[in-house]
UniProtKB/TrEMBL annotation:
Record's keyword annotation contains Transmembrane helix: yes
Chain segments annotated as transmembrane: 171-192, 230-258, 326-344
Domain Mechanosensitive ion channel MscS: residue ranges: 346-411
Topology in membrane: Multi-pass membrane protein
Annotated InterPro entries: LSM_dom_sf, MS_channel_C, MscS_beta-dom_sf, MscS_channel_2nd, MscS_channel_C_sf, MscS_channel_TM-2, YnaI-like
Keyword field contains Transmembrane: yes
Compartments, record wording: Cell membrane
Signal peptide positions on this chain: 1-19
Domain Mechanosensitive ion channel MscS C-terminal: 422-495
Entry protein name: Mechanosensitive ion channel family protein
Organism of derivation: Belliella marina
Length: 551
């Protein structure tokens, strides 16, 4: 029951829309003289299209609307039919009630001349022109008919316009048999084309990429792009061959509108997927660099490009596909964008701050930075903020706008990590022992694998209130803070071992009361050897022991 209702509705619709213009004499009274008159744009249009209707086919009368001088009647009739096919093939639906019926009509919108344009976007060169009191298609339009017809029916498909009707003109469901056969052939052709293109892409493209060693890339990234491209080719074929069937004009106009919108939509999808390929390429390049900030830049670049593709693609679909005038939209968008920019200036500032971070590269992921109250390791750099892991293991989110304007101390960019301390020894330490101790400290630095050998300072440089001070100023060549702490640990252990070996006592803030020694009591002051060779022997023993540890 429902199927019969659908068929009945479809039959009624197709019969109603079987001509370029809809004429309903019961609702729109039309003077028969208007169907054979050139007095106004309205009557000329009515004369041309009404006499090319299937139920009132008289191309000889329709040819009178063409402004011809050197063509014969037969040539004029062929040109009239071709011009009608141009209107049909481009989906230009002529609304007869909107055409002016003024014999003295002036086109004030374009050129202030006695001309009437039907569709300035699709058929800008097709227009009526008044001359000698008659409205006809202009000489320029007549000269363009042949070329426009080839553009509308390219690749030799214009020959099918005369071939397909030979299959039969019997009417079924409001369509001729040749139209139904053409629909079946078109569907079959599209199905076979899609299968063929998919087979070529799946087998041919993947096979070639696997031979080149890029099979994974082809399957994950290139194959989806190729499949969407095959859909685009199917849409192009549909756009070309749907015109040949000469379906009712209103149906064709809607089909062509949807197909024209589908083209930029599919192209947008293709570019959207291509962004993933570009991002993968840049990700591979980022892996080869030492900077970790590049790894954060690639996802941001991918998101930005995808947003750009979606915005441009949407505008393209609206303008070229759905024929929407986007100029007012863009004008309103610019005004709204100004208001949005004023309301979201902090967000915009943070966005440009992130761009400056990626351009200047003041730090990268994993660096230890200090900026004001911020002290921690960079974990992630986003569009709006930077995530920093503090040494308390908490997470701080700092707006990029503030970071771009702040002074940043990047500890992660240090080539060498400084270690400075003062070694204090007691005042009773003899000079020869101090000298041996300093010499031993220098040997420790030279023997350590992570210390800078070309620049360090170890000197006995001060006499303080309670100690003799030795400056210990060295640099570590290590990649991170953990390695620095490990090197400090090793160095300090060696210093303490050296002091124990030589008998050096470290001083600390004390007050000592010296009393005369008694025969039965030993003094607390240690006894030092007066021979410097003793300290050198102990030093050599220490150095040999340290060397044996490394071996």
């Amino acid at each position: 029951m429902r199927f019969s209702l659908v068929l009945t509705s479809l039959f009624f619709l197709i019969n109603t829309l079987s001509a370029q213009i809809i004429l309903d004499e019961n609702h729109i009274p039309i003077d028969p003289e208007e169907m054979h008159s050139l007095s106004s744009p309205y009557s000329a249009t009515l004369t041309f299209f009404y006499n090319l209707r299937e139920d009132n086919y008289d191309p000889e009368i329709a040819a009178e609307v063409l402004r011809t001088s050197d063509q014969t009647l037969e040539e004029s009739k062929k040109l009239a039919v071709k011009l009608k096919q141009i209107f049909d093939g481009n989906g230009v639906y002529v609304k007869i009630n909107e055409i002016p019926n003024n014999p003295n009509y002036i086109d004030s919108l374009h050129n202030n001349q006695a001309r009437y344009f039907f569709e300035t976007r699709l058929l800008p060169g097709v227009y009526l022109e008044k001359e000698n009191g008659e409205w006809k298609f202009s000489s320029f339009t007549v000269e363009q008919i042949e070329s426009l017809h080839k553009e509308t029916y390219p690749y030799g498909t214009d020959k099918l316009l005369n071939t397909l009707p030979k299959l039969g003109n019997e009417v079924y469901l409001g369509l001729h048999f040749w139209q139904l056969a053409g629909l079946f052939i078109l569907i079959l052709l599209l199905f076979l084309s899609h299968k063929l293109i998919t087979l070529v892409v799946d087998k041919g493209l993947l096979f070639a990429l696997e031979k080149l060693g890029y099979g994974y890339i082809g399957e994950i990234y290139l194959l989806p792009v190729a499949k969407v491209t095959s859909i685009y080719l199917v849409i192009v074929l549909t756009t070309i061959f749907i015109r040949i069937l000469q379906l009712p004009i209103e149906i064709v106009s809607w089909i062509l509108l949807l197909l024209n919108a589908a083209k930029p939509f599919v192209i947008t999808i293709v570019f959207y997927k291509i962004v993933d390929i570009i991002a993968m390429y840049f990700a591979r390049l980022a892996e080869k660099t030492e900077s970790t900030l590049d790894d954060q830049l690639v996802p941001l670049l991918r998101k930005t490009l995808k947003a750009f593709v979606v915005i441009v693609g949407t505008l393209y679909v609206l303008k070229e596909g759905l024929q929407v005038d986007i100029v007012p939209f863009l004008t309103g968008l610019s005004i709204g964008g100004l208001a949005f920019a004023l309301a979201a200036q902090d967000t915009i500032k943070n966005f440009f701050g992130s761009i400056m971070i990626f351009i200047d590269k003041p730090f990268q992921v994993g660096d230890w930075i200090t900026s004001g109250d911020v002290d921690g390791t960079v974990e992630e750099v986003g569009f709006r903020s930077t995530r920093i892991r503090t040494f308390r293991n908490s997470v701080m989110y700092i707006p990029n706008g503030k970071i771009a304007d702040a002074t940043i101390d990047n500890h992660g960019l240090r080539q060498y990590r400084r270690f400075y301390t003062t070694l204090t020894v007691t005042y009773d330490t003899p000079p020869d022992l101090v000298e041996a101790f300093v010499e031993g400290l220098r040997k420790i630095v030279i023997n350590h694998p992570d210390t800078r050998k070309d620049y360090y300072n170890i000197y006995f440089n001060n006499l303080s209130a309670y100690s003799q001070d030795i400056m210990f100023y060295v640099f570590f060549e290590v990649p991170n803070w953990t390695e620095e702490l490990r090197s400090r640990h090793e160095l300090l252990i060696s210093i303490v071992s050296l002091a124990n070996q030589l008998g050096v006592r470290f001083a600390f803030p004390t007050q000592t009361l010296h009393m005369e020694s008694f025969p039965e009591k030993k003094t607390l002051v240690p006894e030092y050897s007066a021979d410097p060779k003793t300290y050198q022997a102990k030093l050599q023993e220490f150095v040999a022991k340290e060397s044996n540890k490394k071996d």
